[in-house]
Amino acid sequence: MDEYGNHPDNEYDEYEAELNLLDTPQNCPAGRGMAWIKQAWLLLKQALGNFLLLGFLNILILGIVNAGLSAIGLETASNIITGCLATLLGAGIITAAASQAETGEMEVSQLFEGFRRNTSQLCILIALTTVIGLAIILLIKQLFPIKTSLSLLEIQSIETKRITIQIILEMSVNTMLWFTLPLIMLHDIPAIAAIKTSFSAVIKNILPITVTSIMFALILFGLVISGGLIFALIAQAVGKVTATILLTIGSVLLILSVFIASLLLVYVSYRDILTDQPME
């Protein structure tokens, strides 16, 4: 393995050469954002059952941990621990996506790959993002202090500003960390170096990343609206109970698919921007 974490001994039947990192990130046109959505969908379809199972296990584990800690009054600890677990499990899904894309096979056990490999670097990433998150909260509180002399309406207005700015800043940070998981898990790059590389790649490709994010959100919105219309039609035909059951099943499948698809978008865009073998 070289200093960039490339694996020169790995050979896959569908590629003429091994997959390696580029020296500098590609600068992709805005239209590539649309292509990434298509490529993520095609990858999802290759192993739909396994990917949905990964998503289900991920959400189940986080849900159990969150519910257990909250039940004993450890809400703050619950948020921190589930955040850490989400990163470790997300790293496993990225590994599974790479395995499926590059070899045509994946294993459900790869969900826990983040607990077996590069765990220390993932923990460093988690620590850094936690510090950044706390810094954002403290900064917002300093910029928008709430004084006891303020009216209820004024306090509500400040709280709204706080929440809005916090969401924007956290989304910006998460976007800058877009490629950190594949860099750490697939190329064994240290966390800080992965953050720097991800930041550089995102800055150079902010347009296609913005396009893919907006289109993904619009598709999700369209699916939700369509689901509501379908529920109304089914309710008229077979009754609300049956329609509610079908809607619940459909909603679960949609949530799992959207969750997995968002990580697959990270993988296919990483292949396009940071490696010498973009997805076809």
Would you give an account of this structure?
- The protein is mainly alpha-helical.
- It contains nine helices and no strands.
- It has helices at 32-46, 48-71, 75-103, 119-143, 152-176, 180-187, 191-204, 206-238, 240-274.
- Mean pLDDT is 85; it is low at 1-5 and 7-16.
Brief synopsis:
With 280 residues, the protein is an all-alpha fold. It contains nine helices and no strands.
Question: How do the helices and strands line up, and which of them pair or pack?
Answer:
Layout: H1 32-46, H2 48-71, H3 75-103, H4 119-143, H5 152-176, H6 180-187, H7 191-204, H8 206-238, H9 240-274
Q: Count the E strands.
A: 0
Spans of at least 5 consecutive residues with low confidence: 1-5, 7-16
Q: Give average pLDDT, whole number.
A: 85
Along the chain, the helix and strand elements come as HHHHHHHHH
Measured by DSSP, the beta-strand proportion falls in: under 5%
Descriptive keywords:
single chain; 280 residues; mainly alpha; 9 helices
